[in-house]
Structure formats: C-alpha cells, structure tokens
C-alpha cells in the first residue's frame, strides 16, 4: 500500500513539475497598488533574446472558468519555444458558483467590463515594462481561445473604450494590440450561432443580458478599419462554438478592410490550444501557419 501511494505521489510531482518550473518569472497581480481591489494573475514565459515579439494569452472557459493548462501554459510554452514571449492572463470570470447558481441576480460578481479591464491592464503593464521583459512594445499581441477569443477580439476593437478610467487609470501607453489571434472564438451574442453559456458568463443574469448589451458586445457588429491585423482560426466540426461565429467575424473584417487571415479546417473540434494530441493532424497545422503569418507581419 505504501509503495503504491509513493508511486502515485512521485507521478503527481512529475506531472506538476514541468508547469511549475516553466515560468521564468513569478506571476504578477496586475491590480496591485490600484483602486480595483481584484487579484488577477499574469504569468510571464519569457523567450531568450532581446526585443522579442510578445503575446498575452487568454485561455477559454465560457467566461465561467479558465483552461489554464491546455489553452494557457501549453500555448505559452509553445510560443516561448519559438522565440515569442508569452504572458498567460487569468482574467476574471463568473466562476463555478456563478455557473451552478444564479447568485449574480443578487450580487454583481464578475462580469463585463471586468475581463476587458484585465486584458487592457495587462497590455499596459507589459508595454510599460518592455525593457524588463526584453520585449518590443511595438510587437505586442493578444491570442485567445473560445471565450478567450472573444476577449481577444474585444481587445482589438475596444482599445479606446476608456474602461480603465473606471478604476482611476489613464495609461500613457497605447492599449491597441499590434496583432490579435482569436482561435475558435465566440463572436456573436445575438446570432442564432450564439454560445449561450459564454454570453451568460460575460454579461451576468436576468436583465443584465439586455438587448443593448448583447448588441454592444456582438463583435461582428463592431469591426473597425483601424483594428490591428487579425489571425482567425476555427474548425467546421467544432461541437462547442458554432463555426458560423468565425465566419461572421471574417465577413465583418473583410467588409471594413481589416488585414486578416482566416483559416478554417474541416476537422479538429474545440479546446485543443497548441496540443496535437487533442485535435487532428489537419487542425494542428494552425501553429506553423500562425508563426509564418506573424513572421511576415513584422519583417
């Protein structure tokens, strides 16, 4: 019995070790020293070299939880291994209690614009500390998955929304990313392809899910010509987020002339991040395709 327990303990330690040792710097509480009062962690995975391209990574999870392993750490390690410094953002979400219950009918909890504030604050901090992180502040992007893809697209559309002023911050650096990469993203909050769980996680309960709020955060309605370049990917057989979400965003970007690349795979599913074993041989080629797109963007 003791030997079996010891074996399991060693296996658990070995499984955890690669993730705990991966970050080159400790995580930061992005709201420390501000009036916000929240604790939101941003964890750097810094590539070797100087003046690196950098990317803030937003895991998915329906705006209720975060897949920090597959769509956070796994993605950050892949980016870092390719010379791109990554920062995994554990942005505010509705939480398991918010998913199981409807307590946000009585208490505010986490909801929009908290998530947008978190990603904008992260952009601010990374740009202000570019020398410390050895990154180029003019090559800073945002990548996100599923609901994190919705947040990523918001960062490219609403960078001048002023939501940080709600917590007393007026950044001197630009909050516009230099590129965004929404991967199998939630996009619409009004179309029949809507992912209702993500909409509820983002907006809250009851009257908070108003027609006005759904319209204001349906991203296919808010594409703008001065957005950063976009890398967009999804799979037709996605069983979670209807593939029409990405099609709507592609059409909206095309209509206003935003430089973008839309890659659609027939197979691949959902929730695989940069992990080949969780998708098809077809879909995992997005990683190489994205790196090629990015290298052309900044050459």
Q: What keyword list fits this structure?
A:
8-stranded mixed β-sheet, alpha/beta, 10 helices, 299 residues, disordered N terminus, globular, 36% helix
Kindly describe this structure.
Strands 1-2-4-3-5-6-7-8 form an eight-stranded mixed β-sheet, sandwiched between helices. It is globular and about 50 Å long. The chain is of the alpha/beta class and 299 residues long.
Amino-to-carboxy terminus distance: 59 Å
Low-confidence stretches: 1-23
State the strand order across the main sheet. 1-2-4-3-5-6-7-8
**Coarse morphology:** globular
> What order do the helices and strands follow?
HEEEHEHHHEHEHHEHEH
Label the structural class: alpha/beta
What's the quick description here?
With 299 residues, this protein is of the alpha/beta class. The protein has helices spanning 2-22, 69-81, 95-100, 114-128, 130-133, 147-157, 196-203, 211-216, 244-256, 286-297, and strands spanning 28-29, 41-45, 52-58, 85-89, 135-145, 179-183, 230-235, 260-265.
């Amino acid at each position: 019995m003791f030997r079996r327990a010891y074996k399991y303990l060693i296996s658990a330690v070995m499984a955890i070790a690669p993730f705990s040792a991966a970050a080159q710097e400790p995580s930061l509480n992005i709201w420390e020293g501000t009036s916000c009062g929240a604790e939101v962690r941003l964890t750097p995975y810094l590539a070797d070299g100087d003046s690196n391209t950098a990317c803030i990574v937003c895991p998915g999870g329906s705006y209720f939880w975060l897949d920090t392993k597959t769509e956070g750490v796994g993605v950050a390690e892949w980016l870092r291994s390719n010379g791109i410094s990554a920062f995994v953002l554990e942005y505010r979400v509705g939480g398991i209690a918010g998913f199981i219950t409807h307590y946000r009918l009585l208490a505010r909890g986490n909801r929009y614009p908290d998530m947008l504030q978190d990603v904008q604050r992260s952009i601010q901090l990374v740009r202000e500390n570019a020398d410390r992180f050895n990154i180029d502040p003019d090559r800073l992007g945002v990548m996100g998955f599923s609901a994190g893809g919705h947040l990523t697209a918001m960062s490219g559309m609403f960078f001048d929304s002023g939501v940080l002023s709600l917590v007393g911050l007026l950044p001197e650096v630009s909050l516009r990313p230099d590129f965004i990469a929404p991967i199998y993203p939630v996009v619409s909050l009004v179309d029949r392809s809507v992912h209702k769980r993500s909409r509820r996680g983002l907006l809250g309960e009851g009257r908070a899910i108003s027609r006005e709020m759904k319209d204001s955060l349906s991203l296919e309605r808010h594409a703008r010509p001065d957005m950063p370049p976009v890398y967009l990917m999804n799979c037709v057989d996605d069983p979670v987020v209807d593939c029409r979400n990405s099609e709507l965003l592609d059409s909206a970007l095309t209509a206003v002339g935003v430089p973008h690349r839309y890659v659609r795979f027939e197979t691949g599913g959902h929730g695989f991040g940069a992990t080949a074993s969780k998708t098809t041989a077809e879909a995992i080629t997005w990683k190489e395709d994205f790196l090629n797109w990015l290298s052309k963007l900044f050459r």
